[in-house]
Structure prediction request, 230 residues.
Amino acid sequence: MPGLRTSGLPEAPMSFSPLRTLVLVCGVAATASACVTINIYFPAAAAEKAADRIIDEVWQLRDAGSPAPRSNSVPDAPHSPSEKGAEQ
Amino acid sequence: MKALTKLTRWLAAMALGCMLAFAVHAQGNLEVDSPAISALKASMQKRHAQLAPLYASGAIGFATDGSIALRDASLLPLAQRGGASALVAAENADRSALYREIARANQHPEWEVDIRNTFAQRWIDRAQAGWWVQRGGAWVKK
Prediction:
C-alpha cells in the first residue's frame, strides 16, 4: 500500500485514483482486444456463409431458375439487396 | 482495500466484455464487401454465362482446391478447346484473387488457405446435377 502511493502527491490520493483507473482500464481493454484480434481462430461458419452468398451472386445470372442451390439462402445480410441491385 | 477489490472486479468485467464483444464481432461475419471483391464477383458472374454450358457438358469440373479444371477437352470441338482453356485460366485467376482479397479485407491474410478450402467445399457441394466435381482425387458426376 505505501509502495503504491509514494509516486502521487500525498494530499491528493482521491483525485489521482480515477485517472489511474481510467489508464488501467484502457490498458487492459487494449491488451485484451489486441490478444483476441491477433489470436482469433478462423471463423469457419462465417466463411461458409460468406462463400454461399458469393456463390449465389456469381451463379445467379444463369441459374436463378434452379431450385436446389437457392433453397438454403437465408436473408441474413441487411446490405445484400442494395448490393445485388447494383450488380444486376 | 475495498475500493481495490471493486476496481479489480470492474476491470475483470470490462476485460471480459471487450473479449466477448470482439469474439462475437469476429465470429459473426466475414467482410466480403470491399471494392476489389465486388469487381471480382462481377467478373466471375459475367464469365459464368460462358462456363455454365462447359460445366454441363463435363468438359470443365470443380477441383478440390477451389479452382476449376479442364477435365476432358475431347468433349469439346477442336475449335473451342483454346477458348475453354483461356476461360479456365481467367476464372482461376479471379478465384485466387477472390480468396486472397477476402482474407485481406478481414485483416487476416493467413486465412487465405482456409477461405480457399471453404470455397472449394461449397462450390462442390452446390454444383448442379450433371456437373463434374473432384472427390478424393477422382472425378464424379453429380
In short: Chain A touches chain B through 38 residues (CB under 8 Å). The two ends of chain A are 68 Å apart (CA to CA).
